[in-house]
Design brief:
about 85% helix; two-stranded antiparallel ribbon; 2 strands; mainly alpha
């Protein structure tokens, strides 16, 4: 739908410019600073419009290229940050696993000590009987 409106508006502008140019067919002097020539106004209008269109395309292309470059830079930085965060996450997971295993071994050591004390107590009770 957007493209259809663009085409319609473009055609209307072309028709308006063509009618305006046909109404102004007279020859006009054009000064280039070092020389003056007489050109038909229709030719002068068409050349001016063409130069304006070329400049507009040039500027839009430049801004488009700049946006694409900025997007690629942003995408690269984001990918690098994601990679760093994934590496940090892996390290933290290893730390958690190590601390959990240390806690588990510490608890096992405490249980072993408790069982050894129970064994000693039971041996002492057996020795008494």
């Amino acid at each position: 739908m957007k493209n259809q409106w663009r085409i319609v508006v473009s055609l209307l502008l072309v028709i308006i410019v063509a009618v305006f140019a046909l109404l102004n067919r007279g020859s006009v002097p054009v000064s280039f600073g070092f020389a003056t020539v007489r050109w038909p106004l229709i030719l002068l209008l068409l050349v001016s419009i063409l130069i304006g269109a070329v400049l507009m395309i040039l500027f839009s292309t430049i801004s488009s290229v700049q946006r694409k470059r900025a997007y690629k830079d942003l995408e690269q930085r984001t990918t690098e940050q994601i990679t760093k965060l994934q590496a940090e996450n892996a390290q933290l997971n290893k730390r958690i696993q190590n601390s959990q295993s240390k806690q588990a071994s510490g608890q096992q050591a405490k249980e072993i000590e408790a069982l050894q004390t129970e064994i000693t107590d039971l041996k002492a009770q057996l020795a008494v009987k």
